[in-house]
Write a structure and sequence with these properties.
CATH class: Alpha Beta
Number of strands: 6
CATH superfamily: Phosphoglycerate mutase-like
Shape: globular
Strand order of the largest sheet: 3-2-4-1-5-6
Structural class: alpha/beta
Distance between the termini: 45 Å
Protein name: Phosphoglycerate mutase
Order of helices and strands: EHHEHHEHHEHEE
Pfam families: His_Phos_1
Keywords: Hydrolase
Number of helices: 7
Helix content: 25-40%
CATH topology: Rossmann fold
Largest sheet: 6 strands, mixed
Radius of gyration: 17 Å
CATH architecture: 3-Layer(aba) Sandwich
InterPro entries: His_Pase_superF_clade-1, His_PPase_superfam, PG/BPGM_mutase_AS, Phosphoglycerate_Mutase
Amino acid sequence: MLSKKIYLVRHGQTDYNLKGVVQGSGIDAPLNSNGQKQAKAFFEAYKQVDFEKVYYTGLQRTKQSIQGFLDLNIPSESIIELNEISWGKYEGQPMTHEENEYYLHMLKRWSEGDLDYAIAGGESPNMVVKRLKIGIDKILGQPEKVILICMHGRAMRMLLSLLMNYDLRFMDEFKHQNLGLYELNMDDSGTFKILKYNSGEHLRGLELT
């Protein structure tokens, strides 16, 4: 297996993020003005990296977040298997007290090892990881060595758990923020090492509304 350097970022802010409304894979929201600022800041900070290929999911907020690199005509590909988890009937719904309690209950079930437990109408962690593995295997099987991947918060936690051989019960150890960066190296044996953990250095000084 070829060694690789992976820059893994979460998408920029959407109005759903700003209002605390669940998006998931069923809401294809665009970036808001803050998200566009975050995307520009990330591009300015990392435009000198010689990315050989750029990947995004099937949802527009990830493609918009790395549009600056696409404008450089870097080869790119949409990997729908990296889409966000489906939150089922809770997608697009404001987070009420009751729904927040249910969400916390679900996270507790996951942390206790019930990884087949899915939110009503949605996906379980085991379901998501199964498709994430298909998606990342597609990427790792390609020859490019320096790559950029833009995806989603919860799916990102699960992907990092998969890459680092972490038990999924502890996925929340991988923090994230809008346009936060994880930089990883993969050696010839397929072992990953995290060089930057949820880095937001490029976002400092941004005036968000």
